[in-house]
Every structure is written in C-alpha cells, then in structure tokens.
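Quick log. Single chain, no ligands specified.
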Amino acid sequence: MWTRAVWIEKGREEEGVVPSSWIKEDDLYWPPGVNAKKAMEEKRDPGDSWRKFKIIKIKHQSGNRTECEEYDLTTAQEESDQESQGRAKKKKVFEDYVMEDQQGIYMSMFLLRLLVHFWT
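-> predicted structure:
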C-alpha cells in the first residue's frame, strides 16, 4: 500500500509518496542517509534510527504507487475543469446605469410625476 502525504520537514511543507508502513499515527518515518529510494522500493519497515516528521495531511492511499504519484496532477486538472465548466461569470450591475429598455420607463415615470405636480 502507498500513501501520498504532506509533512513538515525543517520548517517547510513537503509532499510525496511513501509506503504506507512508513506512517504511524500522525508521524512519517524516513530512512537515514541516502538509501531512501532503495528502502522505498523494498518497502522496508521503519527502524529505530529513522527520522520522524509530523504529518499534516494524508491526500491519497492506494495499492498502486503510480496512482498516488499522479493523484495531485489528476485532482488539480479536475478542479480546473470543474471551475471552467461550473462557474458562470456574474454580470456587473451598475445601479445608476439605465439600460435602453429601461430608459423609456423612467421617462414615462418622470413625465407622470411632472404632470401630477402641475395638476395639484
């Protein structure tokens, strides 16, 4: 099983795909030295000498490593598609702007008020 996670390392957010066995509760365990790639491919269990980082978020889990690696790209594209399809632009309405079809109505109302004013 594989997990795409976000964790804090040296004060920065890091994100990556790791074997699910490297995550215990709210912590991510990382192998010491430069053998992380080999340890990842072999899905080694964390040892006592492994570094520990605080997990911020688990984004995705799957039995397929590639699926986890591509998860962020897929969700970003889906969100982009949804935004372009689902959001309709709102028309800006200017309260003091009179459209042509409303202009006749306002003129009629003005004349009616004018006539009422002179007749009373």
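The chain has one domain: 2-85.
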